[in-house]
Amino acid sequence: MSARAPPRYVIRNREGEELVCPSLADLHALYSQGFLSDDDLVRPEGSPRWTPAGRMPALRGVRDRRADPRKMMVVLAAAMILVLGLALLARGLR
Fold first, then answer.
1. In this structure, are 20 and 47 located in the same domain?
2. Structural domain of residue 92, as residue ranges?
3. What is the pLDDT along the chain (94 residues), one digit of tens a residue?
4. CA-CA distance, 24 to 43, in Å (whole number)?
5. Which of these, 22, 12, 20, lies nearest to 42 by C-alpha position?
6. Which pLDDT value is given to residue 79?
7. Whether the predicted model's global pTM rises above the 0.70 cut
8. Cβ(53)–Cβ(42) under 8 Å?
9. What are the DSSP calls for 4-73, one per residue?
10. Contact status, residue 6 vs residue 27, Cβ threshold 8 Å
11. Are 31 and 50 members of one domain?
C-alpha cells in the first residue's frame, strides 16, 4: 500500500505565468516570505477553482504573525519612556 502524495498547488501571477508548488508547506513558505502576493491566484492541482492567495484559509494570518521590526521598536521605545517617566516621578516624590 503506497502513501498518497500531498496535493500540489498551481500558482498564477498577474502576468499569467504559472508555477506548480509541490506542497502546502512550500506554498506557505513562498507566501510568508513575500514571493506570492495576495492577488496571485492559487488552486489545487486538478481543481478548476482559482483563489487569491490572500484569501486562502490555509494562508490567513501568515504575514501578520511575522514580527514587524518597526512595530517592535516603537513598543520598546514606549516602554523605555514609561520606565524613565516612572523613575523621574518616583524620584520627585521623595
1. yes
2. 66-94
3. 557 778 899 999 999 999 999 999 999 999 988 889 999 999 999 999 999 999 999 888 777 655 566 776 777 888 888 888 888 888 877 6
4. 11
5. 12
6. 83
7. no
8. yes
9. PPPPPEEEE-TT--EEEES-HHHHHHHHHTTSS-TTSEEEETT----EEGGG-GGGTTHHHHS--HHHHH
10. no
11. yes
Contact predicate 53/60, CB 8 Å: no
Q: Which candidate, 63, 64, 66, places its Cα nearest to that of 31?
A: 63
| β-sheet bridge partners, residue 10 | 20, 43
N- to C-terminal Cα distance for the chain?
79
Query: 73 and 49: one domain?
Result: no
Q: What sections of the chain are H helices per DSSP?
A: 24-32, 62-65, 69-92
pLDDT at residue 85, as a whole number: 82
Lookup: cell for 38? 495576495
The separation between CA 44 and the C-alpha centre of its own chain, rounded to angstroms, equals: 20
